From TrEMBL:
Taxonomy, superkingdom: Eukaryota
A Pfam family annotated for this UniProt entry: HMG_box
Record-given protein name: Sporulation minus regulator 2
Lineage: Eukaryota, Fungi, Dikarya, Ascomycota, Pezizomycotina
Nucleus is among the record's keywords: yes
Database matches in SMART domains: HMG
Alphabetized GO MF terms: DNA-binding transcription activator activity, RNA polymerase II-specific; RNA polymerase II cis-regulatory region sequence-specific DNA binding
Every HMG box domain range: 103-171
Length: 180
């Protein structure tokens, strides 16, 4: 894939090829830029690339290809400077990972029942949508005898008890939707 990126140059706008190379084995993308780019442009592209892949990016200069190679490398990973050329700089515009603070709500009897019935119905009807699935299971629930519903209520109570043990200070609060 060789998209053409237009950058203003001293002789007007110039179409310059930027090459993206993917590696299925390593699971990443390398970006090659001509070494005729000014370092300011290379730095800006490296920062945007780092922001996009959410990890640090090292920029190497490959003298043989006359290109800059931008490589996303996780911390501690080493690149082969014989193949890639010398490292010119590294940038990290990835956002720090925030610890997961969300505590899931305990499931109620209906949710437990639906999750139990869902795989069975998906196997019978592979093309069923989620809303259709809920409607069908809702019909099953309404027709279940009280004894069967009581089993699911007890399972929900047990899950609630275990949830309270695991998260003693938990209190459900609704998330506020962002205003437009």
């Amino acid at each position: 894939m060789r998209p053409r990126v237009q950058f203003p140059g001293p002789y007007g706008d110039v179409d310059t090829p930027v090459t993206f190379v993917t590696s299925e084995i390593q699971g990443n993308v390398h970006v090659f830029l001509p070494d005729t780019y000014e370092m300011v442009i290379v730095e800006a592209i490296a920062q945007n690339f780092s922001r996009r892949v959410q990890q640090p990016v090292k920029v190497f200069h490959d003298d043989w290809r006359q290109k800059y190679r931008l490589c996303p490398l996780p911390p501690g990973a080493q690149a082969n400077t014989i193949t890639y050329g010398p490292c010119r700089f590294e940038c990290d515009m990835s956002e720090p990972k925030v610890a997961e603070t969300h505590i899931p709500r305990p499931r109620n009897c209906w949710i437990l029942y639906r999750q139990h019935k869902s795989p069975e119905l998906r196997e019978k009807f592979p093309d069923i949508t989620a809303s259709e699935l809920s409607s069908v299971i809702s019909g099953y629930w309404k027709n279940e005898p009280e004894a069967e519903k009581e089993i699911w209520r007890q399972k929900a109570q047990e899950e609630d008890r275990l949830h309270k043990e695991k998260y003693p200070g938990y209190k459900y609060t609704m998330k506020k939707s962002p205003r437009k």
